[in-house]
Each structure stands twice: as C-alpha cells, then as structure tokens.
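Example 3.2
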Amino acid sequence: MAPRPQAACTGATYTVVPGDGWYLIASKTGVPVKDLLAANGATLTTPLFPNQKLCLPPAGSTVPSTAPVTTVASGTVQIAQFPVQGKCYFTDTFGAPRSGGRSHEGVDIIAKSGQYVYAAVDGTLTKQYIDAPGTLAGNGWRLTRSDGTYFFYAHLSAFAPGLKVGSAVKAGQIIGQVGMTGNAGTPHLHFEAHPGGGPAVNPTPIVKAVDGCNVTSVPPQPGDTPATTTPATTAPATTVPATTTPATTTPATTVPATTVPSVGSAPGGASAGLWEFVAPTLAFDTRGAQFVPGRAVRVTIGGVGGVPAAAPGAMVRLMPRNAAGVGYLMLHDCATGPDGTSVLNVQPGRLNVTMSLAALHDGSFCLTSSVAMDLRVYVVGYETDTGAGVQPMVTRRALDTRLSSKMSAGESRSMSPSRLGTPLGSKAVTATITLLAPEADGAFAIGPCGGTPWIVNYTKGISQVFSAIVRTNDAGVCITTTQAVHVVVDVTASWRTSAGGLGVVGATRVLDSRPGGVMPSGTTVSAGTPVGATSGQYTVTMLAMGTPSSLFFWNCADGKPAAAVAHAPAWSRTTATVTVDVRGGQLCLATTAPAQVVVDLVAAG
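Structure, written as tokens:
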C-alpha cells in the first residue's frame, strides 16, 4: 500500500516514527484521539507510515501547553519500586487533554507486552478491573497503602496467579504483565498516584525518582523456591527432528488406526466437554530458570484464574522463549511421563507459541522439553459441564492481505462474524495465523474487537505461523501489527453454547510420516476418536523440505478445502492446533510440497 499524501498543515505537525499508532501519537502529543483523527481526515484504521507528517489541532483548541505539568499536590508521594520491568520509557503527559473532556491523570510507561508489572509499595489489592468492550482501564489493579494512598494500574495483559482483591503484596512483587487492554493503542502501563485516597497527583516525578527503565532483572519474589520437578519416566519422544535429505522410501498412503483413547479420563468426574473462558492468567513462569531437557515440570492450573480445583481439563497458552536449539515440548500426565506425543516444536529466533487443551490430574499437568528454554503458561479456560462447545467447519480463509494490501506498521483490521464463518453469539474460533515475511521484528495482537488481545512477538524476514483458540464477539476478531506484514487467517471451528462438547482425551498419535521421509500425496488416516465422536482436536506438526509447503487437513467426506491449516518455509517446522469434523472416521491430508507431517489427537467429542 502506498503512503497517504502528506497532509497540508497550517500549524504544528508530528512526524511518524516506526511503531507509532494513533493512540500512541495522541499520548505523545497530548491531543485527544478524535481531534488528531479529525485534523488529518483519518480514522483508527487509517495506516501510518514512518516519516509521514501529521497535522496537530490549532494551538488554543486542544493542544496543551508545551511545558509539562510537574507539580505534586498535597505533599510528595514516594514509592519503593519502579512499577514496570525494563526496558521501557516514559514522558510527562499529566494533565494532557483526553477524549470526552477528561485529562490524563497518570503516567504512561511504554514497554513490551508481557513485561512484568510490580507492586510499587507494600499494600493491599483493593480493587480489580476486568477488561470488557468499552472500558478505558482494561485489566487493572488498585493497590492501597495503609495510610489510604492508592495507586491505579491499567491496561494489563494478565494478572499474576493467586492474587485477588484483599491480597497483601510487597513492593517489587509481580502483580501482572504489561498489555494494551482497554483504551490502549500500544502496550504500556498507565500508573496513577492518589495521596490519602484523594485526587490524582502527577506521578511522573514519583516514578522518575526510582527510574527502573533499564532494569530487566526481576526482584526476589515472596516465597521464591526452585521449580517443582519430577523426573521423566520415559525417554523423550522425537518429534520432527532436524533432518537432512529425506529418504526415498514411500510408506503406504493409508495409516492404520491407532488405539482409541478414552474421553474424560482426567479425575474430577465426567464432563460434558464444554468450556468456560476466563481472563488470561499467568499460571506458570520459569523466570529464567530454564527447563532441564528431559525432566518434567509440574504446572498447577486448578485454583488459578477462576479454574475450579477439580476441573478435568484446561485451555492453555504455551509461550516458550530463549530456546537453546531446535526441539519440542511435550504435555503429559505427571504420573506416567511423556506419552510419545508433542504439543509444540520450537526453533531459536522464531515465533514459538501455541494453544492446547490439557487434561488435569489433581489440578495439574506436566511439561517436558527436549531443549533448554524459558516458558510461560497462561490459562484461558477450563472444561466443565456448561459453557461453549465446538462446531468444526471446512477450513475457511477469513483474511488474506495478499489479495488487498499489506498491513502497515501500527495498523488494525477486523474480521466480522460473517467473514469468520461463525454465527452471532459465538465465543471463540480455532484459527491458524500466518505472518508472511515481516519487514522488521515486531508484535502481533489478535482478539475480540474491543476486548483483550493475545500479543505475540515475531521476527523479521521469514514467514511464521501460530494457532490459537481466539475469543470473539458480535463485532468479530480484530488484529493489530507493529510492523508491516502480510497476514493470513484460516478458521477451522467456532465455539458457541449451542455446539457439541469437546473433551480432553489421552493424547494419541494418528500419523507420523517420518519412517518414509515425507508424507505421501493423498494420505488418509483414521481419526483415532472414540465411536460416535463428531469432532476432534489435533496438534499438527510439519517440517517442509527444500521448498515451502502448506498443509491441508479435512474430513474425507467433505472434499479438499481451499484453505490450508499450516504453512512452513523451507527446512522449517510449524505446529498448529486444528479442529476437524471426524464423522465417518476418515481424515485426509495433502501438502503442496514435500514435508514430514506428525498428527496427535488431543480432544474429541
């Protein structure tokens, strides 16, 4: 897409820099978003380009004085801990006009999504704010000191596990993570100070006095203990290892059926396989204490983020970082050890994230990695006998920017329910997101329009893929990127209250093409689901050979879809979560170029 013509400005101007968005520019300049848009004949979806000049409203209308307000009323408030993990930056915009006649009552500390947010003082969490369409704060906390002084935190992407209203916290304790929920156009923490519980005072000099924007290390946490580990009881399963030129042997085109798994095998009682969604909550974080390859680590989900202690299953986001090499992550029952299946393959320097359904035993599951890595696990839902079920669909392409224009830095786009192929009232969709040749390192956000997005970081150049169960609403799904990139979104299912259940099963491998080197064209496999099942959820891993390859996966009775479920660049691996109609029991797979393919069943209903 070509840049918009430069605006003919009669007054002050602003020059766009990489990473800017409309809300961020408004925050930097102290101009209400609506006035900034009006001055440039733009909307929130109008793309921005580096070095583009924007017009600022005439002086005397809504532009504040160029001298920042730095006076602290009612005495000086001091804090013991800078509230955000570095790296970050902030400027004084206290008192700047905001939409609706408001003025800015805090300081915006700009940082990457996912960086930790700390308690600034010893105190008590006295109010929790939950993100919802139309809210300004998004997810947030009110932290109150014994003298009544309170500090307001807004726009968090997640809350620290185990905290609730009434929790006592210590200065430096992690209480959440930076995000862009609510009325936020870029990841940041909005931080306010209210001495004695009264009006807000300018917090800029307060945080500047303990400036920690260059401090990336995490302060010692209350009750810090080494991660609980359980020795793996079986050797790690090899999942799509690095490979050389594939063997020429061609396996049979029909893969024998595997052992049928049992549904509802997790303790806690049989479940209808329906799902309740919760606000994304950090349940586990290695915090730099990397996984020891081959050693299991227990992750407790029951009781975290509103998940009942006896829930039979959980919906989780897995977000590895700093992988020491090419490898894989296995999710399994702690009592039995790895079962020969994997949930995610990783490569250093790439986007390595996924979502999956996990059986819970005593409220927990275990993870074992083949390589050293850091890992964060978020819980976003749990299995129950009420809530949303799943309705598989023939893979549907909801968005392909190659057919229109590349997303530009800071741009947002939306996909309506009709484009997603979902009815009104749907709660979520299962989707694969492909980012094609990003022009720079950046971040990508996807989530319900007006709600809390999931934000992942991608790297420059090579195409990258991740999959997710993405929350939606009647406005659809919205996406944002901080850098220019083409985006493809393929949907395989909708989640809604009128759909059938999908219960976690004992993970089962239904396809492994590696004995023959590559998957033969026109492969057919048994779904591996229990008798009577109509839907299955699978983890699909593919490794393209010397040519980029896309994977199609469908119920053989439906015919090959036009949209793929996964894509992998040459000599690269991709893991996707896919929901498929399994009626008839036969599934078909095809690739556009030679690739190794592994398919594991994780849920059925």
